[in-house]
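== Sequence, structure tokens ==
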Amino acid sequence: MQVKIADSWKNILQKEFKKKYFIDLISFVKNEYENHTCYPKDEDIFAAFDFCSFKDLKVVIIGQDPYHGPEQANGLCFSVKDGIKHPPSLINIFKEISTDLETEYPESGNLEKWAKQGVLLLNATLTVRAHEAGSHQKQGWETFTDEVIKQISNENENIVFLLWGGFAKKKAKLIDKKKHHILESGHPSPLSANRGYWFGNKHFSKTNEILRDLGKEEISW
């Protein structure tokens, strides 16, 4: 398995590829893909970086794990391929967008259009074994994606970080709060959303308001 990552990210992440943890991680992932069904497809593992270039970055959304059902994961957190039934968390994301921005509920769950506008949809773990949630955690992916967050914080400014749920909120310590904007809420999963920790966070209008104040183009959610 070759690490193919978009050129705009290579400069800031190149040194990670040479570290022992990353070499061991890639060896583990390669073995998993050869011996088990894993998601996303190997060409989509680094898709979050392919669709969103470093220089165009405006927003970072942090997920935990790729979807582990057939044909769901496409390398972007919370996103599914066109024509695939929307998973529960994505349904709640779209419901909040509809209410917050007074727009129609989207037909497609493919979030590539967000990524192309400068939204990095980053899972902390970039791969998973089919039907086994969390099966590729603690193998090195978190070390890599934490470094991605740190580099974004160090090398950029005025990025909006959307931290949804306890897991994502822990990443706040990696971000320079003097340089960036952090919006936190509960997770969009049904468990959290039904307890009142998700709906009404207005993160989508708030993000656009921040971007507008910075003179940047808003995201078409």
About this structure: The mean pLDDT is 96.
